[in-house]
Amino acid sequence: MNEAERLVELIPRLRRYARALAGDRATADDLVQDTLERAWTKLHLYRRGTDLRAWLFTVMHNVHVNRVRAKRATDPLDEEMPELASRASQGDALLVRDLDRAIARLPEEQRAVLLLVTLEEMSYDEVAQTLAIPIGTVMSRLSRARDKLRAMMLGGVAAKLKVIK
Amino acid sequence: MTDETQVTEAELHAYADGRLAPERRAAVEAWLAARAEEAERVADYHRLGGALRAAYDPLLEEPVPARLERAARRGAGWRRFAVAASCAVLGFALGVAAGWQLGGARPAPAAVSDSLIMARRAAIAHVTYSPEVRHPVEVGADQEPHLVAWLSKRLGVKVRAPKLEEAGLSLVGGRLLPGESGPVAHFMYQTQNGRRLTMYVRAEPSKNRETAFRYSRENNVGVFYWIDRDSGYALASADLTREELLNVATLVYKQLEP
Question: Exposed site from A47, A119, A135, B51, fewest CB < 10 Å?
Answer without folding.
Answer: A47
